[in-house]
Amino acid sequence: MNRWARVFRWHRMQKEDDEVEEKKEEGEDEKKLPAKPKVNWTEWVVDPSEEFYYGWLQVMIFPIFYNWILIICRTCFKEIEDEFLTLWLTLDYCSDLLYVADTIIKFRTGYLEQGILVQDRERLKKRYLFSSRFLLDLASLLPTDLLYLYFGIHQPLVRVNRFLRISRLNEAMDRMETRTSYPNTFRISKLMLYIFVLIHWNACIYFALSSYIGFGVDRWVYPNISDPVFAPARHQYIYCFWFSAQIFTTVGDTPLPDREEEYLFMIADLLIAVLVFASVVGNVGNVITNLRDRDNVFFPNHELVRGYLRNRYISKQLRNRVNDWYQHLYINRKITRENEILQQLPVQLQTEIAVSVHLPTLSKVTIFQNCETSLLEELVLKLIPQVYSPGEYVCRKGDVGHEMYIIKDGKLAVVADDGVTQFAVLSDGNFFGEISILNIKGNKSGNRRTANIRSIGHSDLFSLSKEDLTDVLSEFPAAKRHLEEKGRQILTKMGMLVEAAEGEEEQEEEKVEVKVERLEGNLDTLQTKLARLMAELESSNRKILARVEQLELETEGWEDNLPEEGGEEGGEVERRDGVGMEVEGKRGEVEGEEQAKGTEREDEGKDEGYGEEKGGEGGETKETERRGQEDM
């Protein structure tokens, strides 16, 4: 027994140790979990673009509709007010609490300024306090329930100021319309809801007017409530609602009024009915127009095409093919004008949508695998959806290839020239025509189609044109070389690449590179010579200007110092001799300087024939000075 007791004790101790270890591991796991960020309620600001704000607007729909529907109903139908008074008071003050919370949230709601959310509480508070909405919200929160002490607890009309929060309902409806996936259905539903509220108000006012005139005094008013059939509150409300609906819809025979009050009520209702009818017709017409415009954007206009085919007397067989194509698009919701639909969005959003829709398909193409992501993002914007009917040829053998195709859905057959023999069947994810758009030199097919491709059933393809691919690859030279290399490998495996042409292409590229290098060297030499000539020209201009200024200074006052008649000839001779000696001396200096410069340039050996050109320039300069001296 002692032996078994020790065994049981040992097992119990093992279990206890295991439990302790499990608790330690759970504690460590809890420590490893990141702590939830705590919200600082004192600095909390609501972003109008967040989900919380949108959800809060939806919550505020209920108290606003409650006040708009129940206050007037409880005021006119006293039996409903008396029977459920406790419930109404509870709902009244719950809606008031939501109004107060909504006001607090408005104090904390941020707004955009220069594209940045303002979160400064003082600025938010100041902006809300000085807005027109604050006055309406404040008026809707006034404690008008204190008037119960004067009018009595059964007068819910004292809470009429709660109607002033209607702007919040309009904002909520607008937000829901922009976010719903079915805006047209939502517009119709919103219109019907507003019409219901209008008929509800009219029914309550009709019952109150009948009570004022007297129940059952004539056929127009509500029947006498002393009759057990018309006494229940439920029957009263349903009858009044039916009577108001008849007036607004102008359907059915309503009793003719007998009193002035009744006539005035009917006139007002008929005018409102005209507006209601116009609004219903207008909104339904807008919905139908929007649906038609949406269909015209998503799908080609079938009516125009059918009219054209009918006017041109196209054969019935071809017209049936066109009708089948349109029917396939419409039944299967095929969209062929994606680019036009997305043009209203920014380019970044267009790219993200196209990437999420088409990138998996494009990445299946062999030549585009392992390419840059940015290149694929540019290409997905160029993909054009196309739909082919059964038996229609996508391309024929010998046609010049202007685009490549990627199969999204359907099956295509590679057939012989007779159109019957099938060599292969292409299905989802396959592609063809990729080599013809790369312009690879040495391709034996010369960028022409090498097979006949025909659609077996209805096929959905993506086409990528040669021009679009060329435009995109112009911005990605590395990717262009990569794609051309892959294309050459594919052609080599198919035996469609001429190796000699490939070698000639490389030699031509080398020759072009040598020519480019030679032209660059010649351009550098010409630029150096041009810079040297420009410097010499500037130096010559400065020297000529200095000589002209010096001559002007020396000739100043010559006319004033001319001798009188007798000594004119002698003076002229002396002046000519003196000037001649000065000019000869300056000419000698200039020639010495120019000879020294010419010697230095010849020693440098910068250009051939440079000294001779300068010698010619020096000779021309001497001749110019000599002519100037003779003129003087």
Automatic annotation (TrEMBL):
One function term, GO molecular function aspect: intracellularly cAMP-activated cation channel activity
Localization (cell): Membrane
Residue stretches of biased makeup (Acidic residues): 556-571
The entry's keywords: Ion channel, Ion transport, Ligand-gated ion channel, Membrane, Transmembrane, Transmembrane helix, Transport
Main location: membrane
Start and end residues of each Cyclic nucleotide-binding domain: 367-481
Disordered: region residues: 556-632
Compositional bias (Basic and acidic residues): 572-632
Transmembrane segments: 53-73, 191-215, 264-284
InterPro entries: CLZ_dom (IPR032406), CNG_cation_channel (IPR050866), cNMP-bd_CS (IPR018488), cNMP-bd_dom (IPR000595), cNMP-bd_dom_sf (IPR018490), Ion_trans_dom (IPR005821), RmlC-like_jellyroll (IPR014710)
GO CC annotations on file: intracellular cyclic nucleotide activated cation channel complex; plasma membrane
Bilayer topology: Multi-pass membrane protein
Gene3D superfamilies tied to this protein: 1.10.287.70, 1.20.5.300, Helix hairpin bin, Jelly Rolls
A Pfam family recorded for this sequence: Ion_trans
UniProt xrefs under PANTHER family: CYCLIC NUCLEOTIDE-GATED CATION CHANNEL ALPHA-4 (PTHR45638:SF2), CYCLIC NUCLEOTIDE-GATED CATION CHANNEL SUBUNIT A (PTHR45638)
Protein known as: Cyclic nucleotide gated channel subunit alpha 4
Gene encoding the protein: CNGA4
